[in-house]
Amino acid sequence: MVEPIFDYQFRLILIGDSTVGKSSLLKYFTDGKFAELSDPTVGVDFFARLIDVDDGTRIKLQLWDTAGQERFRSITKSYYRNSVGALLVYDVCNRASFEHIPQWMMEARRHIEPHRPVFALVGCKLDLVTNGARREVSREEARTFADQNGVHHIETSAKTGVNVTEAFRAVTQEVYNRIKTGEYKVEDGWDGIKTGFARPGGLDFNLVEAEPAKSSCC
Ligand code: GDP
Ligand code: MG
What we know:
The chain has 7 helices and 7 strands, in the order βαββαβααβααβαβ. By secondary structure, it is of the alpha/beta class. The radius of gyration is 18 Å and the shape is globular.
């Protein structure tokens, strides 16, 4: 099999209360369809999808799902540690899921340290509101929270697909911007950002300062 060509790989996680729609969002993003029956206990490890950022740089996203382990503290540290960003997911028709977002955010910050994670606040199941269900989190309130925390906010539906790609794109672009400003570097022993296979004739993506060679080879 030919490995698809990409310039970087970013590892992102989806966090938020159980049943808010994380797995469905991932499924839609990677498969282009809504899976009506999603089994919260089936442990899907990760999904992958290629996405281009504004200057055409190609990013492979490695997207990790919590697989039903959403209770606080039950998520292992390495799940966070090896990530560069997180989608903070709540359900627009579930007030409690929004109120738990600050805790999810803190938990992610704590474990992703020393890196400063990129977040996007993602309100799911927008189609329910369109179909008459009672909205429990207003767009304005979520936007205010997002602005106060300097994160992107977006409302989506894994059923209709509205804004699904945009949610992932927002995080991806921000991670890439931070590579360009030098805040993020590719580091040995951290899976948050990795270099990929540069396209022939493309830029040299050797971002890290070269470590002194350990062997005395050539
Ligand atoms: P998770 O526990 O956060 O991974 O949530 P799931 O993706 O398993 O979704 C929980 C339930 O909500 C499932 O029954 C899904 O079919 C449903 N669901 C997820 N996303 C949407 C959505 O955008 N719209 C609607 N109407 N239902 C959704
Ligand atoms: Mg799930």
